[in-house]
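Risk register update: the risk of archive-format incompatibility is retired. Evidence:
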Amino acid sequence: MKLELKGITKKFGPLVANDHIDLVVEPGKVHTLLGENGAGKSTLMNVLYGLYQPTEGQIQIDGRPVAYAGPGDAMAAGIGMVHQHFMLVPVFTVAENIALGSEATKAGGILDLDETRAKIRRISDEYGFDVDPDALVEHLPVGVQQRAEIIKALVREAEVLILDEPTAVLTPKETDELLAIMGQLKADGKAIVFISHKLREVRAVSDIITVIRRGKVVGGADPGASSAELASLVVGRSVSLALDKAPARPGEATFRIDNLTVTTAGGQRAVDGVSLQVAKGEILAVAGGQGNGQTELTEAILGLQDHVTGSITLDGRELVGRRVKDIINSGVGFVPEDRSVEGLVGTFSVAENMILNRYDREPFAKGLAMKPAKVAENAERLIAEFDVRTQSATAAAGTLSGGNQQKVGMARELSRPLKLFIASQPTRGVDVGSIEFLHKRIVAERDKGTPVMIVSTELDEVLELADRIAVPYRGRLMGIVPGSTSRGTLGLMMAGMAAGEAEAVQTETAGGDK
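Archived output:
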């Protein structure tokens, strides 16, 4: 199935998100869209999927004009979309999620999932998905949830698959598996529209690359181009992909965790006897696949976990048992992993989100009264400093692209004096130019003498930023190693091997892959 977009324009009031975009998506090809956060990529895909109606322009399938009243029409036409934030109901099974919207029933109105289960098993076997139709979605790893999303599109016989930032929440192993699946889909004649900021992946799978900047197509790129060349095309200037940072000069270890255990409501130890420390002027990176206790660890530091034993101290003061607001006011800056749910209030303005941790304090408030002029002044300064792409400071934060939402959260936390900075997935879904900027800001915070802890599933990011690296596996630390540790050693530790053993294995196999 050949898909063509002709002169697609999408306006939101005075904002032109897409400006007369032409695009051809051919069967058996991976067509990658590259662009900065807010460039209009996701808006264009939402038009293609029927979530938005174009202001101008036309969509054609095999040379015939089509118009969608909604996503149901797009799916019926053979277009499927896997969103950056999965559209699955956590308490439903895989089969129930996939049947949702096109439910078959038996006599008496009873839901009939037998046919759906059979389709899931057939597709799962064909592509090696290994997805159980009767598994509850909330119990599945992120990578398997994503496969369920792909299966949902294939069950509806999609010939064009839109993958919007599909690897943003995946581990390196899950990413490799997804790229292999994309290769199989392409070989079967499916057309794939791939949106990603990860240039290594783009170069690995793309047949065609189109670059969008500020809503317009500015040209194409050779998939064989270097990452530096692609980055320059995306942002329109030279971008340094290697972080230039001086060696750390660590001081006193003012942040300490001793024998910390976090128990879930189900009685499992999500964090199991973890001890670590972070010194002033250093970055400790917590590296590992999603679901190994990182979320519970950071939430325990912030006072968001109920069942915690052990000790967490900052400047000698115990944090366990204190209120979240007290912890934040003590100088802890925190960027959570899920910006849309935990990092922002989507219905609040950009300006309001930038003071969520200080809305009731000077200079933004006096007594019970807020100072709108100070709030607006702060927002305008941070929007310019962090290059947040928004229509205005009064726009709802939920209307921003994912990467720009992330910049709002980072700007809020890094714009006040800190005694500890924690960032979980600090550049997830962020474009290459913004990654360069945010990494520099994180290092600058370190160089001010702040203890910094980042949590990331991205090995490239960990190796760029870390002075030391802690690797958890199923809630326990496999070790804390220098930032210069090889990828191979880190990979073995992430799979559950203790640091010393992993280093020995790598030494035996020619020193590993740095």
